[in-house]
Structure of FUSC family protein:
Amino acid sequence: MKAARRPVRTRLRDRVAASDPGLLRLTAGLRTVGAIALALAVLAVLGAGVTHLVAGAMAAMVATFAIREKQPAAQAVTLALGLPVALASVSLSALLRPHVVLGDAFFVVLIFCAVYGRRFGDRGTALGLIGFQTYFLTLFVGAEVSALPQLWGAITVAFLCSAVVRFAIVPATPAGILQRLRQAFRARLAQLISAQIELLDAGPGDVDRVMEHLRDGTARLHETALMIQSRLEEGTPDESTARLVQRRVADAEIAAERLGLLLLTARSTERADTLTLHLPGAPAPSMERADSPDETTAMLRRDLGALRALMLRPPAEARGTALSHVRNRLLGYRDEENLPRTTAALQDVFRGVGEAARAVMGLRMALDGPQDESADTPATARSREELDAEDAAIDAGEEVRPEEELTGLRRPTTRAAVQVAVGSSLAIVGGEFLSSQRWYWAVLTCWIVFLNTASTGEILVKGYRRLLGTVFGVVAGIVLAGLVGNHTWTAFGLVLLLIFAMFYTAPLSYTLMSFFVTAMLGLLYTLLHTYSLSVLLLRVEETALGAACGIIAAALVLPIRTDRRTNELLGTVLERLVDVTEGAVDQLSGGPAADLLDTARDLDQALGDLRGATQPLTHPITPLRARRNTARYVVALLETCAYHARSLAATAELLPTHPSIAADPRLRGAVRRTVRNIEAIAAHVADEHAQVEVETGPSIASLLEPGAEGTSRYGRITGRVLRHLERLDEAVVGLARPLGVPVAAPKR
């Protein structure tokens, strides 16, 4: 049962799956490198010169990374449409090259159209990117009109090679990607449990380090869960299966996070705050000493290790009486079986282990199909019956939320297109002053800093990262160019390695990606016999100029200030938080069933957008330290609110099938204050002059009327629901102070 006994190959596979969920980065790198290598091989056999080899390599790279659709059929259509777009773009670039002013004007128009095309989805984005990049390619290799037939041939070969690699050599179907994402979720869940075992054994000097591992593990598990949710529609055969997997993934995530909180509470000398798991750098709570672990601690360590093994064990190995015995023991804790005589906090941890084991069993049933039931105990059979009843009650219907249709300059794609066109015009003028031959580097940088950005602050941070990566990449390019010399195929081999590194690291670090791009360009210049130290230094100057032009355009032309964008996204998060909270409490109060999982997913997506938009405020280079700390604190509080709202939603969806959870109408009134507070904060965010305030008062539990004689105080409502409601109420009140919302004194 110990992880050390698992085969090395299996452990390595799980480690890779956890570090690269779905192997998306690995697939992107292999596809791009494979397409380039195949194109180079075909062109070399056809006797192409170095210039056309470089052009073919760049075209193969563009044809591969530009296409982002998830379905293979849609990818094939976009690739087929991309070839005539590429051929037309390079032809116009070569024809307009002698006419400087006309060529520059057309380039600006092309840039506008390429960015505006994003409004048409992945296909519009891909075709715009192909058109821009192939125009740039022609400028880079200095193609003349007389060389167009050979250039057309190289680009056609590149697109065909990209198709062969995409659909035959490195295929990736939605179902296959989803399967690998599931494996990544299992691996990351196991890593989080390992971090919880570390917390169990951590001494006073290790707490900060272990808490960072716990925070990272929790965040990575949530990231993978969101990735799975985004792929469910394409990767599952029907909506019912998709909703089943979505439900089981959400259950497992919530159970794992709850187990971490229970363990943190049991080890803390004071009440542990949920915020501790969500605020990076937050001081760890003081811990009780664990110098001499007692029998209960050893038992808990054993059970956490068993839970991790249950999660990691492949379906083919997940049979046998030993594993069934372990599973039965853990599930028994849900029914108070064999709970050790210890403190109430530690008993809660054992119950949390039982809930996590149930979530793991449900996840295995959803992902791996029917399980062996021959060794089930009554507790295991009850858990299995609950899961089967929940599965049967899942409704595949999905309500589509209508979205506001923006028009004109209010549409983000239109605004971005205008900004990029203005910034590119400035970059062309400034770039011509620096170099009449290599001005296009400034335009490329201006274009890139606008990709996937929506505010001036995001563009500033991206421009800074690109410049930093370029500076270090120039140094690497100088070294590599000196080592390679005139060895053409050695240079191409290094180019392939750098391209793989570029695509593999792109989602992790934009600075690293820029570093590999610049180092690769040094080798390409060597191949084209245009390499010199002055050329690489010019690359830095053009990059700085392009970034500056992009920032100026973003700041002066239809600007979207970071504060405005974060406030808009914050308002959306608060709106989604109200939807989830009201929907869950309404169902827990006896209201009709609602699509709570999808509503919770909308909340997670909105929170993810806000987290990305606050990066300029939380970046290490920002001089406003107090503002940075406030942004981090607000996002962490919202993550805490989202966790409790997700937990309420998951509990509410158990109502039809769970024997120990029943509706209680009193909850609807108890949560009104929390909802009013969220709406008050949202109103203040939308208009800082709004006359609103946040109310405080007695705890949620005290607002519930005592139960009938002979029943517990809370009737049929579980303590877990009350704890989530109280923590949510506290977190919402906590949001008021950093956002400047007045807090009213409790009414007597």
Summary: The chain has a mean pLDDT of 83. The longest helix spans residues 207-235. DSSP finds 28 helices and no strands in the chain. Residues 78 and 123 are 6 Å apart (CA to CA).
